[in-house]
Protein: Ferrous iron transporter FeoA-like domain-containing protein
Amino acid sequence: MGLTFDTPVECLGVSPLGDPAAYRIRGAVIAIRRADSRQILVY
Structure:
C-alpha cells in the first residue's frame, strides 16, 4: 500500500486488548497490528 503526501489517516479505534488498531485511509478501513505497524516507513 502506498500513500501520497498529505493523505489523511484517521485512527478509528483500538481493540479492547490494544492490538490491532483500525485506520481509515482514502475511504478504506484497515486493521494493523503493532508488529506490522513497526515495519511502516515514513519518508
In short: The first helix runs from residue 34 to 37. The two ends are 14 Å apart (CA to CA). The mean pLDDT is 90.
